Description:
The protein is an alpha+beta fold. Helices cover 24% and strands 20% of the residues.
Amino acid sequence: MRLVVTLGTALLLSACASTPQPTQPAPPPPRPPAQSQAVPPSAPPPPPVEGFRTPEIMQGPGLSGVIREGARSLISQFGQPRLDVAEGDMRKLQFASQACVMDIFLYPLRPDAEPVATWIETRRASDGAEVDRLACMQALRQAG
Length: 144
């Protein structure tokens, strides 16, 4: 009887054994990279002038009438600045209204050039919280 139970158990266990699954085909080999067109080398940048560093220039929508403009153009757009601070070759103009405060930083783009607007920061006049740059510019243009 033990032999029958042992054989029956063996048969049941062998029935539970998994059958081999068909193997999936291997993925295709990766494609070679597309041929890119060679970009001709550009002229090397001019050698740095002792003590001069090229400023970072802010980019974005709605800045074309302010960024890269000189102080005269900015004053004609926004009125007399509340602050006009010069330090080295940098100049900061601050325009303010009840709505907001805008600091415009002017730097020369090359040695011995006139400083132009390269960066703008705006904040709420009441608590200094950041505000939308374009909305502040519009409010100051109307106030100026």
